[in-house]
From TrEMBL:
Enzyme Commission numbers on file: 2.7.7.70
Annotated catalysed reactions: D-glycero-beta-D-manno-heptose 1-phosphate + ATP + H(+) = ADP-D-glycero-beta-D-manno-heptose + diphosphate
The entry's keywords: ATP-binding, Carbohydrate metabolism, Nucleotide-binding, Nucleotidyltransferase, Transferase
GO molecular function: nucleotidyltransferase activity
Species annotation: Leeia speluncae
Protein name in UniProt: D-glycero-beta-D-manno-heptose 1-phosphate adenylyltransferase
Gene: rfaE2
Length: 166
């Protein structure tokens, strides 16, 4: 018996292919971005809440080099981009997933022109990259409060402490 690739893999869209793909995404389109290195409850709750703000959700992930430049640790990301893309694409609330090499997602935001721009509660709306541009073309910007005190950095710290105690 042969098995086909899971259908969620079709939600992974290379930046060069976004122009054609975004015309097929439902509007209003919500955009968010992040590393999403080790997926946890906070991530999936946030993504579901972001999706509920519109008809479709596109997520842009930091490339591996972009994550490294964020200063989260020498061993980050734990999961390479191709794995992070697949995990995010597998989520029901996500319509499409892409990535960016730069330090910020501004190029993807300008390329996609989402109706709604979203980041987590640690970002004030006026500090969200792309906020002025999205507002200028009539969109809205949201900062979604965190419901769960979870983070990949905190999880890794806990794992490393446990490893040190053996």
């Amino acid at each position: 018996m042969s098995y086909n690739s899971p259908s969620f893999e079709q939600k992974i869209i290379a930046p060069a292919d976004l122009a054609g793909a975004i015309t097929r995404l439902p509007r209003p389109l919500v955009f968010t971005n992040g590393c999403f290195d080790i997926l946890h409850r906070g991530h999936v709750t946030y993504l579901a809440q972001a999706r509920a703000l519109g008809a479709g959700l596109i997520v842009a992930l930091n490339s591996d080099a972009s994550v490294k430049r964020l200063g989260k640790g020498d061993d980050r990301p734990i999961n390479p981009l191709e794995n992070r893309l697949a995990v995010i694409a597998a989520l029901e609330c996500v319509s499409a997933v892409t990535w960016f090499e730069e330090d910020t997602p501004i190029e993807r935001i300008l390329q996609i022109q989402p109706n709604i721009l979203v980041k987590g509660g640690d970002w004030a709306p006026e500090n969200i990259v792309g906020a002025p541009e999205v507002i200028q073309w009539g969109g809205s910007v949201h900062s979604i409060p965190f419901l769960f005190d979870t983070s990949t950095t905190a999880t890794l710290k806990k794992i490393r402490l446990a490893e040190g105690s053996h």
